[in-house]
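lol ok so funny story. i was supposed to be doing the assay writeup but got distracted and ended up predicting the structure for this chain instead. priorities right. anyway since i did it might as well share w the group, maybe its usefull for someone
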Amino acid sequence: MRLEDFSPVDRELAQVAPGGDLIYRCLDCGADHGIEKLLYTCPECGAVLLIEDRDFPRLKSTSGPDWRRRFDLRRMLNHPAAKGIFRYHELIAPVVPADSVLYLGEGHTPLVEATALLRQAVGCSFAFKNDGQNPSASFKDRGMAVALSFLNYLIKHRGAGNILSVCASTGDTSASAALYASYLAPAVKSAVLLPRGKVTPQQLAQPLGAGASVFEIPGVFDDCMKVVEYLADHYQVALLNSKNAWRIRGQESYAYEVAQDLDYDLTGRALFVPIGNAGNVSAIMAGLMKLRELDIITSLPKLVGVQSHHADPVFRYYQESDPQKRQWRPVTVQASVAQAAMIGNPVSMPRVVELARRYNQAAGGPAFFVVQVSEQEIMDNMILANRHGHIVCTQGGESLAGLRRALDLGLVGGDEQAILDATAHHLKFIGFQQMYFEDSFPPDFGVTPRKELVNAPQEVVAGARQPQPGQPLEGEEFTSFVEATALEIAKRLGLEAR
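and the output, tada:
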C-alpha cells in the first residue's frame, strides 16, 4: 500500500522520521561516547560498547497497542525505508534518515512450523525462523543492513568520504559484508579475512563474487579476528564484525519479527539461538527487553543459547550457578560442522553477561540458559529437520539439538512452543550433508551417520540398450528402454499396477 491510502491516524503512525539521541555506552566503565565517529571499543578502558538511546523514554508516550499497529501497518507499505528490519526504525537506528536506509530484501523471513510427525519425534511444538532466506542467505544481513546504512548516512550527511570495510569471518559475515558493501560502491569497498580451509566453498564464493578483497589466514576465526582488530585500531577502516555495536542493533530485528509473527504473544514460548560470536543472542535479549519495556509484549520468553561441545566457552561459564564465582575462560576450538559457531573467544561475551543479568531481572527469574550439544547431535538433527520439509543449516541443526537437550534437562516443557533459529541456508553447508551420507567425516568431528537418515541416489540401468549423450535411442529401442526402466523403478518402490 501507499502511505496516502491509509487513514490520517494510521498515516501518522506508519510514517518514519529521524529521531532519538543515540550514544555508545561502555559496558565496563559506563562512559558515554558520541556516534559521530565509528567506535568499536571504549577509548577510555578498551571494553566493548552498546548503542543506547538516551531519549528512549519518549517512545513510552506511544502505547503498546499503537506500537503493534504501527509495525503491522508498515509491513504493508511498499517503501524501502519502512520495509524489512527498518519497519522497527525507532527501536533500531532512529538517527538514520530514510534516504540512507539500505534495503536489499533482508528481514521478512518465514516462521515455518514443524510437521506433526516431527513434533511427535521431538516432544513439543516448535517452528524454525528461516533466516537463510535473507539476501546473502544468512541472518548476518540483519546487522549488516544497519551497519552499512549508518555508513551510508556518514557518507551522505557527515562527509565521511570513501570507506574500506573489513571483517573476520567463518563465512556468513564475509558474504553479507561484501554484498552490502558492493551495493554502496565505489564509496565503500570491502576486505574480508577468512581462516584458510575452514570455510565451505559456497561461502567462499560469495565474497569473491561480490568483488571483495579476500585474505585467507592460517588458524581459526579467533586468529582472523585479532588481525582485524589490529587493523581497526591502527588504520582508517570500518570494522563490520559484531564488535561493531550497529551490527547488534540490526540483529535485534530477529526478536521484533518473531514477536510480530506470533501476534506479539510470547507467553509460553522459548527461543533457541546458536551462540557463535555471541552477537545474535545479545541482540535478541536487548530487543526482547525493549519490546517488554514498551508494553509491546506482556512477558519475556525463555531464551536458550546453544553451543557445540567443540566450541563451548559460554556454556562452561554458565555451568557455575553462582554469578560471583563465574570466571571467563576462552577455549581452543575443535573442528565443528557448525562453522559459524566455531568460536572459542566470542567478542560479545561481555554483552552476554550484562544483558543476561538484565534479562533475568526483567523476567523476574531465570529466563536465559545455555545448553551444550554434540557434533553428532547437530548433524542428526539437521538431517532430521530437512527430512521433514525444512532447509536448515548446521546451526539450525544445532538449535534443534539444543531444544531436545533442554527438554531432557527440564528447562523447557512439552507444553511450550519453541522458536528455533536457522541462521543460514542449508545449501551453504551441503558438503557436511554429503559427508554424512557418504560416511566420510574426518575422525576429529566424531560424527557417525545414522543408517535411517542416510540417503543416496540409486542408479537404474535397464533394457538391452540405454541412451547416451549424443546417441539417443529411437523407435522400438527407445520404447523398450522406457518400459524396462519404469518397471525397475516400480519394483524398487513397491508400486501396484493399475
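The domain at 111-135+252-453 is CATH 3.40.50.1100 (Rossmann fold). The mean pLDDT is 94.
back to the writeup now i swear
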